[in-house]
Amino acid sequence: MKTSLNQPHLKYMTHSKQILPAVAAAIFNEKGEILLQKRRDVNKWCIISGHVEFGETVEAAILREIEEETNTKAVIKRFIGLYSSPVSQTYTYSDRTVQYITSYFEATLSENIVADFSNDETQELQFFPVENIPQDLALINPNWLADALNKTSTVFIR
């Protein structure tokens, strides 16, 4: 059977699929507001998140990501859950599809964020009341906010 290069099934064959470890953190202030980052790459709001680098633990990865994206240090308060559902953890990019396995933490900043901080990844940082989160959120797990607000000792696996 002959096929041409413009057939959709051939694109699927060249489109790579990956599973990658990731981390995310819900960070609340003393008023109970959640910290969101306006990301430069997608120009949308999201919680602090990132990838685990080779040789890192998930705990070290989230503390590094928080420091890189906020220019502040933090401490982990609790482990919220592990998220691996292909439905909510799969993202399609132009060259690949990635299913993230995300370790999700609650963290507390140990320093104040410098006013108007920005860098290559962070366009803006702002605390929002949980009932007034911006509409232009990047695609995130639909359970993350509710799970972070659940202060029981439950660890979520979704």
Short description:
With 158 residues, the chain is α+β, with helices and mostly antiparallel strands.
List the main descriptive attributes of the protein structure presented here.
158 residues; Nucleoside Triphosphate Pyrophosphohydrolase; 6-stranded mixed β-sheet; 4 helices; globular
Describe the overall structure.
- The chain has helices spanning 8-14, 58-70, 86-89, 144-149; strands at residues 16-27, 34-39, 45-46, 48-51, 74-83, 90-92, 96-109, 122-128, 156-157.
- With 158 residues, it is α+β, with helices and mostly antiparallel strands.
- The chain has a single domain (17-157), classed as Nucleoside Triphosphate Pyrophosphohydrolase, CATH 3.90.79.10.
- Strands 1, 4, 5, 6, 7 and 9 form a six-stranded mixed beta sheet that branches. The protein has a three-stranded antiparallel beta sheet with strand order 3-2-8, with no helix packed on it.
- The radius of gyration is 17 Å and the shape is globular.
- The termini are far apart.
- The tally of strands reads 9
CATH topology heading: Nucleoside Triphosphate Pyrophosphohydrolase
Q: Bin the helical content.
A: 10-25%
Round the mean pLDDT to the nearest integer and report it. Answer: 89
| Shape-level CATH architecture | Alpha-Beta Complex
Strand content: 35-45%
Gyration radius, to the nearest Å? 17 Å
The separation of the N and C termini measures 42 Å
